[in-house]
Each structure stands twice: as structure tokens, then as C-alpha cells.
Design goal:
The complex is a heterotrimer of chains A (about 300), B (about 270) and C (about 325). With about 300 residues, chain A is an all-alpha fold. Chain A is about 65% helix and about 0% strand. The radius of gyration of chain A is 26 Å and the shape is flat. Chain B has helices at about 1-15, 20-40, 45-70, 70-80, 80-85, 95-130, 145-170, 175-190, 190-195, 205-215, 225-230, 235-265. The longest helix of chain B has about 40 residues, at about 95-130. Helices cover about 75% and strands about 0% of the residues of chain B. Chain B is built from 12 helices and no strands. Classes of the chains: A mainly alpha (about 300), B mainly alpha (about 270), C alpha/beta (about 325).
């Protein structure tokens, strides 16, 4: 007369039921993923309300929203150019409201809210709004000033503003020496590839998250590609002057001893030469495509720059 | 299954005599009071607010009932020893557990049904005051039948929570059972985030643990379609059916576990 | 087929949370109860009587051993249709009335509405709480609850009835009623198995008893057999006994208790034969009222058995064989 119930039968029944339940879950998640991510935000959009709801669990909720922001971003990225990123700002806003010292969230917003479509939301204004929140919450951190200046420079091409923010950041105790240099460069020359390269290099150095490092590396490669394209343009022009027409392929340039081999971009893909227009660019298949719109030089600034 | 029905009806009778159904009065008063206040304050959007409030209140009140009666379903009978005389009758312990679960679900069903009627009544009254059942600036009609979808999902959630409470009631004290049940409910809402835990924490073991927990713990968030329904977003029937299937399987697992624990117990 | 049969029934509990130790509540209990018998299950507190009853009701499971009721293993649902059980200090559902409770239990037995009503009414009358049928159980006194408990145990006209301390909480009137009830059940041919402290009742009601002490069945058998050779003396009740005559024969009397003026109850030793003393007292002017052998009471026998198996020390010791 032992106890009733066979543990083995029970355990197997339980395992079967749970696996079936799991299967249903996975099926539902796969078929209706869109719906599920949306609903989680709609209820509490206001950071103020969220702060009240969160009680004393702000930090963990900030983490939750951070994770969701990343998921949302990743999901939109996969949409191959149709991403809306419309929930990115609200989620980052919520994250930083719940935890005003969530540095990486501000930085993420700075880079990807400002970045043009399809890589980002294309809303530098939102990026700056987010960063200004960061400045207000952490006025002694030079990072946010730098990031604001960076958005003005890289995305908005507003060199005066960029210079101002770089300058203010550079004034803070503990700020790195090159911030003030940026300010000077902005005011003197406006857009400058070397300055850009420097900024991205610094961003990559101080990055403590993978996505930032990778983005910085990508940008540096793109800038290097731009340098190479400038050089290739000079080669093309030399050929055009000599032969009176534009080269039709790299082979012609190689044959003319102007190039040693087919030029390849830092990502390993050959550059393209459009034989009709003579335009040189990275290939559409390259990782570096599309190349960013660089901040252009603005010589008129030089007139107003302090000496 | 006649025995199960008899026990279930007794559970229902106990809930009624414990004055649980008075929560319905509170619900009705709340809805009516707020709808009246809103009428005095803002213009437009009251219907949406009442819908939000009604669904949220249904969920919350139902949750209270599911937890506070659920945790005592078994433990109360065992502690007070009323179970001694009961199990000497020609019933099996399985029938007892099933009967108790069914009884609480029945109580919840009655509760939710009455709330739904009150809810639609208040919405109807508000719409009637506005002069039309559907105004152009509303996202959905006042007496939107899609609300029933949200209510059905809420009810499924409550059934799961009841099963969880029942399971804990078979072996732990009411206090502990309440804490664990509410805890599981809260975790269940954030369950999906466990899947992507690697974005928050670096240690690999924690990530694997989180992922395992994601698969095992009840995933409550997908049952929450209140926002969609209120905003008029379409909810595919496929989701509803899959949710129902998931709930059924999970509840079956929980009740089996409760039964297994219960039939092997000594009643000291 | 026996009504009840156990075979080496043993139950261990674990005591303690951090380092659980086994505690042997029942040890190798083997007993049988014939159909139609009234069996008294006696023992001091903590002996394991309630544990045995719970094992028979399958509220707990044995560590080893076997038990059956009416030829089927305990817990068999069909057998439960033919038995009734009154737990110790019963608690039922506060919020139900007596009538509702009995109706609830009756419906679990499977009777239709009419049959439920009939049985409930009959039993409410039989246990004497018909007047309180509509009263909620939370308002019932202990004695009344005990009656409800008996009523619910008899709903299905059981063949075997298990009563755990049926007299507890009852005033003498209530005890008398329960006693009569048990006699009625006996007359109906019902097997009654009840545990009790009240030995006098067991003596009066039971055909057989079992004595449990320290988790072991230390004695079982017919009441008469247990006491058959235990005559320990004589009791002579005399009247009109003058003080002189008493003093004269005092040395032959073990104890003299005054009942009334000149009336005494004299305890005499087993031998010599009391007839001689009786004649002498009568010669001295006394009147013989009664002469009876003094048997050991069940209580004496009980105390003697239990003394060899003390219960209290077990709590501190691991399970071990008693001497």
C-alpha cells in the first residue's frame, strides 16, 4: 500500500503539456510578433505617469524599457528600409526618465535617433531633446554636451551650434582636451573630414558597448573610403585629361599604369566607376554603402572666427 | 463528474456567503461615479476612459478574487480539518481538486459576466447622453462588441492565476501562496523580456536561466489586449485561439500538478 | 470477511525541519474486527488512536503494512459508500446550516433530491438537532457539532461506522444519547469502531476492545476475557452493623467504607472464603444486603497495560523496539 500516483507518469504528462504549451507560445510569437511588441507601450506613454507607476522599481523598469528599445530598433532595422523607429524615442525617453543616469541610453539615442533613414529614425531634433534631458540631469558630465555638438555637426551641419556645445563641454572640469579643439575647428572651417575622423575615433575609443564600437568602425571605414574616392577621382581626371574621355573601367586605368590593381574599399568590395558619368562610389553591395553625407566645409565661418 | 459539480457549486456558495460578490457593487459604483465625474470635467474621450477603466477594474478585481479565494481553496479545508469528513465520502481526491478549481472559475465567471453587463450598461448610458452610438471622433463605437474579446482574454488570465493559486494552496500556507501567486502574475507580464535578458546582464548563466524561465513561467502579457481593443486595432482571431490553447494546456499542467501533490499528501 | 482488518500497520512521521528525525507513531498494529461487533479502541493520549483511524480513512498513508475494510483496501471508493466516519473534534463549514451540510454530504453520496431530504430529516431528528436545522454551523456549540458529526456519519446507513472520540465535548446527557445511539447501531447489525478515553462506556458498550499504547497494540480481545480471571476480592454490603461487631472482625476486612448509618461496604480479600465472615457478622446482628466479586475494572487493566509502555519518552528518542 504505497502512495498513489506514479511520479514518472506524472512527470512525463507534465513535460508533454508544457512542451505543447511552449509550442503554442512559439507559434503565436512567430505569427503575431508585431502585435505583441506594440501593446506594451501604448498604455503608459507619459514618463511622468510611468514614474508614479514604477514606485521604487524605476531602475529595473528602466532596464526593461532599454531592452525593449533595443528590440524595437533591431526589429525595425530588419525591415530593409521600411523601418519607422517611431517607438524609439518614447522608449528611450521612458528609460531615461526612470533612470536619468542611464548614460548608454542617451548615447544610443544620440546616434540612432539622429541618423538618417534607413539606418536610424532620422530625427536629430529628438536626439537633441533627449540629450538636453541628459544635460539637465547630469550637468557635470561633458559627454552629453559632446553628443549634442556631434549631432549638430554630423547630422544637422549646423557648425555654429556645434561649436557652442563643444565649447561648453570643453569648459567642464575633467573634459578631454580635444573638445575645445573641435570647437575651434568648427568655427574656423566648418565641416572637416579630419575632424570627423577624429570625432568618430574618439567615440570608438570611449565606447563600452558593441554597437557603438561597430558604428564608429564603420564610419571610420567610410571616411577612409571617401579619402580613397578623392584620390581615385584625381586619377580619373588625370586619365580624362590625357585621353580626352572618361575611363570606362578600372582596367583601362590599370592599363594606363595609373593604378596597380582594381581598387577595393576598406570593407573589401571593389569601388564602382560609372563610365557614363565618371562617378566613383562604393559598390551597392559593400558594407559601407551608403556613404554618409559629410559635413561640408563652410569657409564663410572663417570670417567670423575668433583669431 | 456529478461529484465535481456538487463540490464546485459548494465553492460558489461559499464565495457568495463570504460576501465576495459585493465587489460587484464596488465595481458598478466606481464606473458610474467616474463616468459622472468625467461628464462634468472633460469634453470628448470619456468613452475611451471608461472603457480603459472598466477593463482594468475587471482585471484587477478578478485578480483579487482569484488570488484570495484561490490560495485558501485547499489549505483552508486542510487547516480547519473539514476535509476529514469530506474525504470519507465516496469521492476521490482528484474529484475534490477539480471540483474546487471549477467552483472558483464558476465564481469568477459569474463575477465577470455581471461586470460585463454593468460595463455595457454604463457605456450605453454615456453614449445615449452623447446622442449617438458612434461619434466620428471616437476610435471605436461605445458598445463595441470587440470589448468582449478583451474580456475573454482577461477571463483566461484569471483562470490561469486561479490554477496557480490552487497549486500553491495544495502545499503551502495562505500567506506564502498569495505572495507566490501574485509574484508569478507580475513576472508573467514581463516574461517576454526574460527572453532578451542578454541585453541587460552580461553573465551567460543568468541569460540561460532567464531564457529557461521564459519558457516555463506563464506568459501573461499576450492576454492583455485591452489597449488594442480600446484603440480599435484589429486583433486577429488566430491570436485569440492560440491564447486559448496556451491557457488550456498551461492550466491542465497546473491542475495536474496540484492533483498529483494532493493525492500523495498526508493530512496530519 | 472481516469488517476491518489491519496487518502490521506502521506509520512513521518526520519531526523537525532542519534535521528531520523519524518518529514512529504506530508500530506493527495487527487487529481484526468482525462484522456486527462493537469494538472499542482505547489508549492514552498520543498512543496513536487517531493515527490509526486516519490510516483507515486513508487521510494518511502507511509507512508499511496493510489495512482493509469489508475486504477491500482502504480508500476504495465503493467501500466508502458503505462506511461512515466521525472525526475527532469535527469542524464543518461555518457558513452552511446543519441542513445544508447534511444535504451537501448526501448529494456527494449520490442520492436524488427526495432521498436527500428524507435522510437529512430523519437524521436531524435522530441526533436531536431538528430544531436548529436552519441555524448556521458557526453558531453551534461543541456538543451540537458533535451531533451533526454523528448525523453526517450515518447518512448512508453505513455497515461500518468509525467514531473518533464520539463522547468528547458532550455533557452527561449527551453522552447518554451517544451511548444509546451506539447501542441502536449495534442492534441494527452495524459494526462500530470507536476510540475513546471513557473506559466505562467502552466496558458497557463493547464486545471487544483493543488497547493501544506507545503506538503498539498491547492487548486486544473480548472484554470479558480480559477480565475473566481478574477477580481480586469480594465486596460485602451490610446493614445494621454495630460498631462493636465491626471492631470485632475488623482484622478480617481489608477496607470498610461507610455508606450510611450502620451501613458499610466491606472489601474482603479473595481468600479465605467470605461465607465464614458473613455468618459471623449475621450472628452479630448484621443484615446482608449484597455480596459481589470485585473484578478488576477495565481501567485497572488499562492502566496496568499502559504502564509497561510509557508514551512520553518517545518524543525524544528515535524509533526503536520497545521492550
Amino acid at each position: 500500500m504505497t502512495r498513489p500516483g506514479h511520479p514518472v507518469i506524472f512527470a512525463s504528462t507534465l513535460a508533454v503539456l508544457m512542451s505543447l504549451a511552449l509550442g503554442v507560445q512559439l507559434t503565436r510569437d512567430r505569427l503575431y510578433a508585431q502585435m505583441l511588441t506594440e501593446n506594451r507601450l501604448m498604455y503608459v506613454t507619459s514618463p511622468k505617469a510611468m514614474e508614479k507607476v514604477a514606485l521604487s522599481y524605476d531602475s529595473i523598469l528602466a532596464d526593461v524599457y532599454w531592452v525593449r528599445a533595443l528590440q524595437h530598433f533591431g526589429g525595425e532595422r530588419l525591415k530593409e528600409g521600411n523601418g519607422q523607429y517611431d517607438l524609439l524615442f518614447p522608449m528611450l525617453d521612458l528609460t531615461t526618465s526612470l533612470d536619468p543616469r542611464f548614460v548608454v541610453a542617451y548615447r544610443f539615442g544620440a546616434i540612432f535617433l539622429a541618423e538618417a533613414q534607413p539606418g536610424g529614425a532620422g530625427r536629430p531634433d529628438l536626439a537633441i531633446a533627449l540629450l538636453k534631458k541628459g544635460v539637465a540631469a547630469n550637468p557635470e558630465k561633458w559627454d552629453y554636451y559632446h553628443d549634442i555638438g556631434f549631432v549638430y555637426y554630423w547630422n544637422l551641419h549646423d557648425y555654429k551650434q556645434a561649436a557652442e556645445w563643444f565649447g561648453r563641454g570643453g569648459d567642464l572640469p575633467g573634459a578631454p582636451w580635444w573638445l575645445k579643439t573641435y570647437a575651434g575647428v568648427m568655427l574656423a572651417r566648418g565641416g572637416d573630414r579630419q575632424a570627423s575622423r577624429q570625432m568618430w575615433f574618439q567615440l570608438g575609443q570611449t565606447a563600452n558597448s558593441d554597437w557603438l564600437k561597430q558604428t564608429a568602425q564603420l564610419r571610420l571605414m567610410q571616411l577612409a573610403a571617401l579619402d580613397t574616392i578623392d584620390a581615385l577621382k584625381r586619377v580619373r581626371d588625370t586619365y580624362a585629361n590625357r585621353s580626352g574621355k572618361l575611363p570606362e573601367s578600372w582596367d583601362q586605368l590599370i592599363a594606363a599604369r595609373l593604378l596597380r590593381g582594381v581598387p577595393v574599399d576598406p570593407a573589401g568590395t571593389p569601388y564602382t566607376l560609372n563610365f557614363a558619368t565618371g562617378e566613383i562610389n562604393v559598390s551597392g553591395y559593400s558594407k559601407l554603402y551608403p556613404l554618409p553625407t559629410e559635413p561640408a566645409a563652410a569657409p564663410e565661418l572663417a570670417a567670423t572666427a575668433p583669431k | 463528474m456529478r461529484v465535481v459539480a456538487v463540490i464546485a457549486i459548494n465553492v460558489f456558495r461559499e464565495s457568495v456567503r463570504d460576501k465576495v460578490l459585493y465587489n460587484l457593487v464596488l465595481f458598478a459604483v466606481l464606473l458610474m461615479g467616474v463616468s459622472y465625474l468625467l461628464g462634468q470635467l472633460t469634453a470628448g474621450n470619456e468613452i475611451k476612459i471608461i472603457k480603459d477603466l472598466g477593463l482594468a477594474a475587471m482585471s484587477l478585481f478578478g485578480l483579487f478574487i482569484a488570488v484570495f479565494i484561490g490560495i485558501g481553496l485547499v489549505s483552508k479545508e486542510v487547516d480547519r480539518r473539514s476535509i476529514y469528513a469530506l474525504l470519507a465520502k465516496p469521492i476521490s481526491r482528484q474529484q475534490f481538486i477539480t471540483g474546487k478549481y471549477t467552483g472558483l472559475v464558476l465564481t469568477l465567471l459569474v463575477n465577470v459576466t455581471v461586470m460585463t453587463l454593468a460595463f455595457y450598461a454604463v457605456l450605453g448610458a454615456m453614449a445615449w447622453k452623447e446622442g449617438a452610438w458612434f461619434q466620428p471622433h471616437w476610435e471605436t463605437p461605445a458598445l463595441d462588441p470587440a470589448l468582449l474579446k478583451a474580456i475573454a482574454m482577461i477571463f483566461l488570465q484569471l483562470m490561469i492565476v486561479t490554477a496557480v493559486a490552487l497549486l500553491f494552496s495544495t502545499f503551502s500556507s495562505p500567506m506564502l501562496a498569495a505572495a507566490l501567486t501574485v509574484g508569478l502574475y507580475v513576472v508573467g507580464h514581463f516574461n517576454a523580456d526574460l527572453k532578451h535578458f542578454e541585453n541587460v546582464v552580461d553573465s551567460k548563466p543568468a541569460v540561460y536561466l532567464a531564457r529557461a524561465l521564459y519558457y516555463v513561467l506563464p506568459n501573461m502579457a499576450p492576454f492583455d489586449i485591452k489597449a488594442q481593443v480600446v484603440h480599435g486595432a484589429a486583433v486577429p482571431n488566430g491570436v485569440l485561439m492560440l491564447n486559448t490553447a496556451y491557457a488550456a494546456l498551461y492550466i491542465l499542467a497546473l491542475v495536474s500538478a496540484a492533483t498529483f501533490i494532493f493525492i500523495r499528501r498526508d493530512f496530519k | 470477511m472481516y469488517a476491518i482488518r489491519t496487518e502490521n500497520l506502521t506509520k512513521d512521521f518526520s519531526i523537525g525541519f532542519w534535521r528531520p528525525r523519524p518518529y514512529r507513531a504506530l508500530s506493527d498494529v495487527t487487529l481484526t474486527v468482525e462484522q456486527g461487533e462493537t469494538f472499542g479502541f482505547l489508549g492514552p493520549n498520543g498512543a496513536g488512536k487517531t493515527t490509526t483511524l486516519k490510516l483507515l480513512m486513508q487521510l494518511i498513508y502507511p509507512t508499511s503494512g496493510y489495512a482493509e475494510i469489508l475486504g477491500r483496501p482502504v480508500g476504495d471508493i465503493e467501500v466508502k459508500r458503505r462506511i461512515g466516519y466521525l472525526p475527532e473534534s469535527p469542524y464543518f463549514y461555518d457558513y452552511l446550516t446543519a441542513e445544508e451540510l447534511l444535504t451537501y454530504f448526501a448529494s456527494l453520496h449520490g442520492y436524488n433530491r427526495a432521498e436527500q431530504r428524507r435522510r437529512v430529516s430523519t437524521l436531524l431528528d435522530e441526533v436531536g438537532i431538528a430544531a436548529e436545522r436552519r441555524l448556521q454551523l458557526r453558531k453551534f456549540s461543541k456538543g451540537m457539532l458533535q451531533r451533526v458529526g454523528i448525523a453526517q456519519a450515518l447518512l448512508n446507513d453505513p455497515e461500518v461506522v468509525f467514531l473518533d472520540e464520539p463522547m468528547s465535548g458532550l455533557d452527561p446527557l449527551g453522552r447518554r444519547e451517544v451511548r444509546n445511539l451506539i447501542l441502536k447501531l449495534r442492534d441494527r447489525g452495524c459494526t462500530v469502531f470507536f476510540s475513546s478515553h471513557v473506559l466505562a462506556d467502552a466496558e458497557a458498550l463493547c464486545s471487544r476492545v483493543g488497547i493501544l499504547a506507545g503506538g503498539r497494540l498491547v492487548a486486544s480481545g473480548r472484554v470479558a476475557d480480559l477480565q475473566a480471571f481478574q477477580v481480586r476480592g469480594w465486596e460485602l454490603v451490610v446493614g445494621s452493623l454495630s460498631t462493636d461487631t465491626l471492631a470485632q472482625h475488623r482484622h478480617r476486612i481489608q477496607r470498610a467504607t461507610t455508606i450510611a448509618r450502620d451501613q458499610y461496604a466491606l472489601e474482603l480479600q479473595l481468600s479465605p472464603d467470605p461465607i465464614a465472615l458473613l455468618r459471623d457478622l449475621v450472628a452479630g446482628g448484621a443484615q446482608v444486603i449484597s455480596l459481589n466479586p470485585m473484578r478488576e475494572t477495565l481501567e485497572d487493566y488499562f492502566v496496568r497495560q499502559v504502564a509497561t509502555h510509557p508514551a512520553t519518552s518517545r518524543m525524544d528518542e528515535p524509533a526503536k523496539e520497545a521492550s
